[in-house]
Amino acid sequence: MNMSVVINISIVIFAVLAVGAVAQGDWDTGHATFYGDMNPDKTMGAACGYGDVFEDGYGFETAALSTALFNNGQTCGTCYEIQCFNDTKWCASGSITITATNFCPPNPSKPNDDGGWCNSPLKHFDLSMPMFEKIVTDYHAGIVPVQFRRVTCVKKGGIHFEMSSKGNPNFILVLIYNVAGAGEVTDVKVKGKNTDWIPMSRNWGQNWQTGTQLVGQALSFQVTASDGKMVQADNVVPASWQFGQSFEGSAQF
C-alpha cells in the first residue's frame, strides 16, 4: 500500500476516535441503580448546584455519585463511561457516558449489600432511569454490577457562568457548568473591569464565591480543571449583569 494512503487512513481513524469519549483512566468496578422515572423533572442536579439539568444541557445523561466518588463535590462535572458487567441475566451490550451532577447519600441504617448502596466505601452510580435502561435488559434488575472509567467530557458551546440569584452586592456566587475536557473544575479566578484577578472559593458543588463587590463591572474568569489546563473567558459577563442571569462564553476546554 502507498505510504501516503496509510497516513491518510490513520488520520481518518484518529479523527473518528476523537469525536467520541476519550478514556482518561483505567476501568474500575462498582454498581449502579436508578432513581425517578422517565419524567425529566425527576432528574435534578441539587448537590452539584446545577438545578435543572435539562436547562443546563445535561439531559438524562447524568448520575448521582456515592461518597467514595463524590469527593465532597469536587468531582461534579466529571464524565464517566459505564457498562453493565459480569451479569449474563441483566447486562445489555454497549456503554453509556454520563456527567456527575448529584450526590447519592449514604444510608447507615441499611447494610451495604441490601439498600445501603451508596454507603462508604462503595463506588456507586445512581442513574436516571432512561440511562439505566440502556445498560440492562430490563429495569427490574434494580441494581447491577458495572465497570466504569473517567473519560473526557464533550460539550456543545462554551462554558456557562450563572450569576446566582442567591448572591447580593457583597457576595457573588457563580455556578460554572457545561465544562468540557476533564469536566472537574478545581480553581476559579474572577476579574472585574476595575480589579485584578481575585481567587474564588468553592461554596458547594460547582458554585464559586467571592465577597468582593463586583456589581456594575464586566467580569472575566479563569477556570482551571483537574488536569491542570486553564481557559480564560474575557468579559464574558457584561457590566449590566443581574443576579439570576447566565452567560455563555466562547472559551472551552
Structural notes for this entry:
It is a single chain. With 253 residues, the chain is mostly beta strands. It is 11% helix and 34% strand. It is built from 3 helices and 14 strands. An 8-stranded antiparallel sheet has the order 13-12-9-10-11-8-7-14, with no helix packed on it. Strand 10 and strand 11 (207-210) form a beta hairpin. The radius of gyration is 20 Å and the shape is elongated. Mean pLDDT is 90; it is low at 1-20.
Number of helices: 3
Q: What percentage of residues falls in helices of 4 or more residues?
A: 10-25%
The CA-CA distance between the termini, in Å, is 37 Å
Beta-strand portion reads 25-35%
Which structural category fits the helices and strands? mainly beta
**How many strands appear in the DSSP assignment?**
14
Using only CA atoms, what is the Rg?
20 Å
Multimerization state: single chain
The helix/strand series, from N terminus to C terminus, equals HEEHEEEHEEEEEEEEE
Uncertain residue ranges: 1-20
The general outline is: elongated
Looking across the biggest beta sheet, what order are the strands in? Answer: 13-12-9-10-11-8-7-14
The description of the largest β-sheet is:
8 strands, antiparallel
How much is the average pLDDT? 90
Write the layout of secondary structure elements.
Layout: H1 3-18, E1 28-35, E2 62-65, H2 67-70, E3 79-84, E4 96-103, E5 124-128, H3 129-135, E6 144-151, E7 160-163, E8 172-177, E9 185-192, E10 198-204, E11 207-210, E12 219-225, E13 230-237, E14 246-248
Parallel strand pairs: 1-5, 2-4
Antiparallel strand pairs: 1-6, 2-5, 3-4, 3-6, 7-8, 7-14, 8-11, 9-10, 9-12, 10-11, 12-13
